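Journal club prep, shared notes

We agreed each person brings one worked example of a sequence with its structure written out as tokens. Mine is Inner membrane-spanning protein YciB. I'm keeping it raw so we can talk through how to read the token line rather than staring at a rendered picture. Sequence first:
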Amino acid sequence: MKEPKPWVIPALEWGPLILFFAVFMLNRGGDVSLWGRDYSPLVFATLLFIPAILAATLIRWRLTGTLAPMQIATLVLVVVFGGLSVWLNDPRFFKIKPTIIYLLFAGLLGFSLVTRRNWLGMILSEALPMDAEGWRKLTLRMAMMFAALALANEIVWRTMSETAWVYFKTFGMPFLIFAFLMANAGLFKAHALPAAEKDTDG
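Then the structure, token by token:
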């Protein structure tokens, strides 16, 4: 299978989210009338976000032949909770979607720790070769991070404006995840497998 160009995968990941943000910002001055119904800017943006992320996921699958379990879970929850927001014309369902996603991820990672199963390593070991102790530490830290993100999402959407929540979802959450990964660079290096260290040096 032909390897996609380097910019394609980031475009597929960020494209639907940027579309969601742009549509919301362009229409936040008032409701949008469509098919005889008035939709709030957030619900209208969600209406366009769902087919966009479906298309992006399908294209990614066709290009790479694989989808990570987290990508599949995210897609299902976007369709379910986004669909409920559009169907009931209630943005609250879409706002709680990140909370459900992050709690699900935190729960799965926590369960893998209790049962001593390296699920995270099974998914990421090819891109990030580490020893068992490194995966145990990273799994614990990621479970705590996802739980913290779920709590943060609840605080933001329940106490701040809708615009503030959209900014937080579009830019705040990805930045926090990126900052988390950068903060764990020392762990990746300390627990890298010898072969991975050799490849890096060579």
